[in-house]
Specification:
The complex is a heterodimer.
Chain A lengths: L4 E3 L2 E4 L5 E6 L6 E8 L3 E9 L2 E5 L6 E5 L5 E5 L8 E8 L11 E2 L3 E5 L1
Parallel strand pairs in A: 2-11
Antiparallel strand pairs in A: 1-3, 3-8, 4-5, 4-9, 5-6, 7-8, 9-10, 9-11
Chain B lengths: L8 E5 L4 E6 L7 E8 L6 E6 L4 E2 L4 E4 L5 E6 L8 E11 L2 E2 L8 E6 L1
Parallel strand pairs in B: 1-10
Antiparallel strand pairs in B: 2-7, 3-4, 3-8, 5-6, 6-7, 8-9, 8-10
The chains are: A mainly beta, B mainly beta.
Chain lengths: ~120, ~110
């Protein structure tokens, strides 16, 4: 079974630009969660989507948004990029809602964003 | 979600059992204990989870104390590839879902040859 696929793996942007990251979950998984990982803050929750609906959102500004399509694929967008947005963005899928029974997360390799 | 406390680092000899402790003294009845690990430059990997009972799978065993205030992840025969940061997480889950997982700093497990 194919794992979680994230594209692109690496990208460089400049301040003020926007970026869209893509995530294809494991086949049959309906939940997709996004996390930001930085050396200083560790892994921080961005949001979770289940059946095209945002179920939970972390403490991030409105510049961070996401969506999920009917085939469970998900995208996240960051607008008006800031230097502090440089990070590894991880997507995770799970068979059920994250955190509960059947809610174990399966992570992709991440998209490493550098903002100059 | 309950706060978890883990030692920042641990060493273990290759071939021996690695026992990673986690304290979650404020855990509530609807909180699951999840363990993940992250090998350098890779995404975190799910290991195991449990609510009340001990659990075992092909990767590890999870021992949860009767009062649920602490747990231990056991890697029965550690190999060099088990060197990673291990995260213990307590996740409050209701039928409507859970808040995002809070990963904390984890334990950096180093397997010594």
């Amino acid at each position: 079974k194919a794992g979680v696929t994230q594209t692109p793996r690496y990208l460089i942007k400049t301040r003020g630009q926007q970026v869209t990251l893509s995530c294809s979950p494991i086949s049959g998984h309906r939940s997709v969660s996004w996390y930001q990982q930085t050396p200083g803050q560790g892994l921080q929750f961005l949001f979770e989507y289940f059946s095209e609906t945002q179920r939970n959102k972390g403490n991030f500004p409105g510049r961070f948004s996401g969506r999920q399509f009917s085939n469970s694929r998900s995208e996240m967008n960051v607008s008006t990029l800031e230097l502090g947005d440089s990070a590894l963005y991880l997507c995770a899928s799970s068979p059920g809602l994250a955190g509960g029974p059947g809610g174990e997360l399966f992570f992709g390799e991440g998209s490493r964003l550098t903002v100059l | 979600d309950a706060k978890t406390t883990q030692p920042p680092s641990m060493d273990c000899a290759e071939g021996r059992a690695a026992n990673l402790p986690c304290n979650h003294s404020t855990i509530s009845g609807n909180e699951y204990v999840y363990w993940y690990r992250q090998i350098h430059s890779q995404g975190p990997q799910y290991i195991i989870h449990g609510l009340k009972n001990n659990e075992t799978n092909e990767m590890a065993s999870l021992i949860i104390t009767e009062d649920r205030k602490s747990s231990t992840l056991i890697l029965p025969h550690a190999t060099l590839r088990d060197t990673a940061v291990y995260y213990c997480i307590a996740v409050a889950y209701s039928g409507g879902g859970a808040d995002g997982l809070t990963f904390g700093k984890g334990t950096h497990l180093i397997i010594q040859p």
